[in-house]
């Protein structure tokens, strides 16, 4: 796939086929993540690839959290879709969790978060190029303690985001751009 085609066709996928992704493909997209730029070239990102029982546990935990979170939602269809996605991460065969080293210094922490975000976007784009779906998620971090417990993540690591990865079992429409002609989002200065 052409580079710009990848950029334009990547979508947040919330329903996946159960088929496992070959390990070589997982490693290929993680390699793309590992080639991101990083502040002071620290390359301090780390990834946890979750499948099997631990993935199931994560879904059960996020599902329980989602039930409380959506308790007063009036739109029944929206609520059902949210719960279904939360309980199994859309049925994806794996979840990739991105971590960074924490820092008490706010500027360093921000730098680390930006580096890992760059790596995470590489991962999502590479997944798309490989015919895989993904969905950048920070919602589950509202129940961060459970993720830390399930995956035994140490205190000195910060969870940046996670994504289910798998073969898409849905077609997502591209959301419209708010300013497609970049009239308001870009200011040219000379
Ligand atoms: C920082 C960040 C956090 C997100 N968190 C969630 C999330 O918790 N759950 C979810 O379903 N989607 C989440 N998304 C996906 C967005 O909803 C999605 O990217 C957006 O609606 C645009 O759709 P697209 O990715 O198909 O272009 C997140 C995206 C970003 C960049």
Task: Describe this protein with a few key phrases.
190 residues, alpha+beta, NADH Oxidase, four-stranded antiparallel sheet, binds flavin mononucleotide
* Relative strand content: 5-15%
Structural class: alpha+beta
Helix and strand pattern: HHEHHEHEHE
Bound molecules: flavin mononucleotide
Instruction: Count up the domains.
Output: 1
User: Could you say which overall geometry the principal axes of the C-alpha atoms support?
Assistant: globular
CATH superfamily: NADH Oxidase
How many DSSP helices?
Answer: 6
Poorly predicted tracts of residues: none
Strand order of the largest sheet: 1-2-4-3
Distance between the termini: 36 Å
Describe this structure in words.
It is a single chain. The chain has a single domain, classed as NADH Oxidase (3-Layer(aba) Sandwich). Helix content is 43%, strand content 13%. It has a 4-stranded antiparallel beta sheet with strand order 1-2-4-3. The N and C termini lie far apart (36 Å). The site of flavin mononucleotide has 10 residues, from loops. This is Nitroreductase. GO terms for molecular function: oxidoreductase activity. It holds the Pfam family Nitroreductase. It comes from Syntrophomonas wolfei subsp. wolfei (strain DSM 2245B / Goettingen).
